[in-house]
């Protein structure tokens, strides 16, 4: 699949400048989607390092080695969850998710069988999960190959830099992304990598 995706994306002369076979990203379906969604809620609006610290604290609240079940999370006090370093809002969002999974409002196992838009529709019914979070689940945890999140500031910044656009021009940015179908998830991974390289260069300069 990488060969086809890479070949297709190189047809865009601008995007081609940042493509490299040295960084072939892995796409795989997460074994525990509940854990993945909780992790994405914790990571909302946070960089990787603080998000990982909070995730570790969260897991350490529970005695067993495996990730806690939705019922176990529901039984944990809000105060203890808050003490992990997350906001009260995120505590509520995680409890909302846990309740939805427990009462079968959302069937976690069925998500992998749905098409992309149906997955998004299912997830955004839960308060605290918006389209961006759902799209990240699709890319990083359901291994979907054709997702571009125009709501992601990093992606918009990278595209705006490459194509000399205003990053607030969502319509133009999304229109450009259509050239990368059906491999927009692959393009997204390269764009994030490109943005990271710009940040690193700025730090070193």
From TrEMBL:
GO terms for molecular function: alkylated DNA binding; DNA-3-methyladenine glycosylase activity; DNA-7-methylguanine glycosylase activity. GO terms for biological process: base-excision repair, AP site formation; DNA alkylation repair. Belongs to the alkylbase DNA glycosidase AlkA family. This is DNA-3-methyladenine glycosylase II. One of its GO terms (cellular component) is cytoplasm. CDD domains: ENDO3c. PANTHER family: DNA-3-METHYLADENINE GLYCOSYLASE. It catalyses: Hydrolysis of alkylated DNA, releasing 3-methyladenine, 3-methylguanine, 7-methylguanine and 7-methyladenine. Residues 121-140 form the Helix-hairpin-helix DNA-binding motif class domain. Residues 42-196 form the HhH-GPD domain. Keywords: DNA damage, DNA repair. It comes from the Bacteria. Its EC number is 3.2.2.21. It holds the Pfam family HhH-GPD. SUPFAM superfamilies: DNA-glycosylase.
């Amino acid at each position: 699949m990488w060969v086809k995706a890479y070949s297709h994306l190189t047809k865009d002369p601008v995007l081609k400048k940042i493509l490299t076979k040295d960084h072939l990203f892995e796409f795989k379906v997460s074994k525990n989607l509940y854990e993945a969604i909780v992790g994405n809620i914790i990571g909302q609006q946070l960089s990787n390092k603080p998000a990982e610290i909070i995730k570790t604290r969260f897991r350490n609240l529970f005695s067993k080695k495996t990730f806690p079940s939705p019922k176990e999370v529901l039984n944990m006090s809000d105060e203890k969850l808050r003490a992990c370093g997350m906001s009260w809002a995120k505590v509520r969002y995680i409890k909302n998710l846990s309740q939805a999974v427990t009462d079968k409002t959302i069937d976690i196992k069925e998500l992998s069988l749905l098409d992309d838009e149906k997955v998004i529709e299912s997830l955004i019914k839960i308060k605290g999960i918006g389209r961006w979070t759902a799209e990240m689940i699709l890319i990083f945890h359901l291994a979907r190959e054709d997702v571009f999140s125009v709501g992601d500031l990093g992606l918009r910044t990278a595209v705006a830099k490459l194509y000399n656009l205003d990053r607030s021009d969502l319509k133009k940015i999304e229109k450009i992304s259509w050239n990368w179908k059906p491999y927009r998830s692959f393009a997204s991974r390269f764009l994030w990598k490109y943005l990271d390289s710009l940040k690193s260069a700025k730090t070193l300069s």
